[in-house]
Amino acid sequence: MGAPGSLAISKLVYPETKSSLTTSADVRKIPDSTYNNVIEAITESAIDSAGLIACVALNLLVFICLLSFVNSILKWIGNSLCLNHILSFEYICSYLFWPIAFLIGIDYRDCFKVAELFGIKIFLNEFIAYQKLGTMINNKQIYDAVNWSITTAEQMGDDLVLFGLNKTVLKNGIILIVQLLLQHIFFAVLEILRLLECY
């Protein structure tokens, strides 16, 4: 829905005043299929999609490298300024988007983590944000599974360290209320779509 929505908004903000270049007469007809059978169509489609898959994978790799580069620079700046907390892109986003996370109804204990995910999705790539969200949800399940026997935990930066028979490190921390988080995100998206529909 992102592409049609942005096209509709762009047509409203900047309407076409000249003759359109994409009239029905200018659009070419789709040529007939050159495939002889279903197997050939599947094989050719798989070969054609390999380039697209490679582009998506390289794009994701570039964004991960860019995030690492920016975090390295911010960490160096934070160390030069003798800051108490490790300065990173996620840390900055967690403060920038905290009010938005709080206003959409996220539990105050999870607002910094959700704001961090908002920043990563907006500025970088949704795949990275979904991967971090998956890690947080998995960490919550591990935390709940061992919480009955382990009473000692320590927070080191964004990570949560559980002490027991072995030292379990939950990278990126945990999301405390996963079900409510998913419900709030769903209803926030519905509300945004409803508001866009009114305009």
List the helices and strands and how they pair.
Elements: H1 2-13, H2 38-80, H3 89-96, H4 98-103, H5 111-123, H6 126-146, E1 153-156, E2 159-163, E3 167-170, H7 178-198
Antiparallel strand pairs: 1-2, 2-3
Helix pairs in contact: 3-5, 5-6
Task: Using brief descriptors, characterize the structure shown.
single chain; 199 residues; mainly alpha; three-stranded antiparallel sheet; 7 helices; 3 strands; 62% helix
Question: Can you walk through the features of this model?
Answer:
By secondary structure, the protein is mostly helical. It has seven helices and three strands; from the N terminus they run ααααααβββα. It has one domain (37-198). A three-stranded antiparallel beta sheet has the order 1-2-3. The longest helix is centred in the N-terminal third of the chain and has 43 residues, at 38-80. The two termini are 16 Å apart. The mean pLDDT is 76. InterPro entries: C_nuclsd_transpt, CNT_C_dom. Pfam families: Nucleos_tra2_C (PF07662).
